[in-house]
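Thread amino acids onto this structure.
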């Protein structure tokens, strides 16, 4: 792919990320907090250092974030089953419910926007999802080879 097309693709994906952030209301949790919870849900319990690397923040910043998520009962620290001296962070049931609630509200707002597009545009967006999932998996693997879930993202379009 020529360099300019790669730049255009990167800019386009950044616009999609911005649009999805705009659809996320309320904004009582930071983007990093929501992303961390989603990572914990998708990947399972992780060490704070792993989460910091995944989210692109410092270890002290992630420690503070996890403390806040714990206070709000969205995440919890647990002993690592492989090494009881080590602590891992896991999402709580309340954290999973909060993510599900936010995703449902975001999906509703997105559906309203999609309904305004022609069918051909909606089909093109749906057709791009498997490739975007593979691209995301490759990006995660580049950061942390153990970060890719064993099962693929479910196809929610059939629900």
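Threaded sequence (159 positions):
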């Amino acid at each position: 792919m020529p360099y300019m097309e790669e730049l255009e693709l990167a800019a386009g994906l950044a616009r999609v990320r911005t649009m999805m952030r705009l659809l996320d209301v309320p904004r009582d949790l930071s983007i990093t907090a929501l992303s961390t919870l989603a990572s914990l849900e998708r990947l399972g319990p992780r060490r704070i250092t792993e989460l910091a690397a995944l989210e692109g923040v410092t270890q002290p910043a992630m420690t503070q974030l996890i403390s806040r998520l714990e206070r709000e009962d969205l995440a919890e620290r647990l002993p690592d089953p492989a090494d009881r001296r080590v602590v891992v962070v896991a999402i709580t049931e309340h954290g999973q419910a909060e993510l599900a609630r936010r995703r449902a509200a975001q999906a509703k707002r997105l559906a309203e926007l999609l309904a305004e597009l022609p069918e051909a545009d909606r089909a093109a967006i749906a057709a791009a999802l498997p490739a975007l999932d593979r691209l995301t998996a490759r990006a995660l693997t580049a950061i942390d080879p153990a970060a890719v879930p064993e099962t693929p993202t479910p196809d929610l379009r059939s629900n």
